[in-house]
Design a protein that fits this description.
This protein has 137 residues and is an all-alpha fold. It has four helices and no strands. The longest helix is centred in the N-terminal third of the chain and has 67 residues.
Length: 137
Amino acid sequence: MTDDIKDINQKLENKKPTIKQLELQLKRLEQQQAKEKEKLTKQLEREREKEQKNQARKLRNKKIYDWGGLVPLAFGPEEFDKIADNPELKQCMIGLLLTVRSQLKTVGFGLTAENKPTWLEYYKNQSKKFLEERNNG
């Protein structure tokens, strides 16, 4: 009987290192799993940010495209073709736009959110006048 107890104790002693190794291995795997989860979370966040930036870029490009349509509308197709094909006229248009911007600033509107209703109203009135003059001849 004592031999059996000694045998059992011997087997237990032999299994202890194996159990410790398994515990260490389990701990390593848990740490590795935590690291992988963190990597995945960071990757998902990067993907989300990338998608948000992509959507913002698309929206901005659409706004630029929409605003770009104002020049042909204001000048008509023939005049716009002349402006678009002539670098000097294009430079003049850029100069005019910069002049308008500086005039808005000096008039006190400033292109700020608080002043947005004021300068929008100003431009609406200016564009109405322009279109009326254009339609009347």
